[in-house]
Design brief:
The chain is an alpha/beta fold. It is built from six helices and five strands, in the order βαβαβαβαβαα. It has a single domain, classed as Sugar-phosphate isomerase, RpiB/LacA/LacB (Ribose 5-phosphate Isomerase B, Chain: A), CATH 3.40.1400.10. The model has no long low-confidence stretch (mean pLDDT about 95).
């Protein structure tokens, strides 16, 4: 599984911690930036490329985005057609999002989460499978239909 990770200046430190944590477990981690602390960077510059990369192979990749609140990154990631991203604020929320909504990208709030909490959330996100239950598939199909209606090429 490829894990694409990105953060702005507010998420930079936590991104570095999460990246090291994942690499210590032998995960394939692709750091999409920021690669240095730059107080003038903008979260869309990192969220959008991560979401695009995940959508190239959603069955075999996941994304982790980190900013101060997690909300800006979430908004941007969900602008990519087919993307299902969400703010993950706890281990439970990450598990629920994977099981029920087949979430592909989580966003984390560096201003709120401690390193160990973020690691637990990431672990839950990466190890929890989609349930594949009919009701969840039906709901995802409805979301896909909404996208088809609103994002015609």
């Amino acid at each position: 599984m490829k894990i694409f990770i990105g953060a702005d200046h507010r998420g930079f430190s936590l991104k570095e911690d999460i990246k090291s944590y994942l690499l210590s477990k032998s995960d394939e981690v692709i750091d999409m930036g920021t690669h240095e602390l730059d107080l003038n960077d903008d979260y869309p510059d990192f969220a959008y490329p991560v979401a695009q990369e995940v959508m190239k192979d959603p069955a075999n990749s996941r994304g982790i985005l980190i900013c101060g609140s997690a909300m800006g990154m979430d908004v941007v990631a969900n602008k990519v057609r087919g993307m299902r991203a969400t703010v993950a604020y706890s281990k439970f929320s990450a598990q629920h999002a994977r099981q029920n909504d087949d979430i592909l990208v989580i966003t984390l709030a560096a201003d709120v989460l401690k390193e160990r909490e973020a690691q637990d959330i990431v672990d839950a996100f990466l190890t929890t499978p989609f349930s594949g239950e009919e009701r969840h598939i039906r709901r995802l199909q409805k979301i896909a239909e909404i996208e088809r209606q609103n994002f015609k090429e």
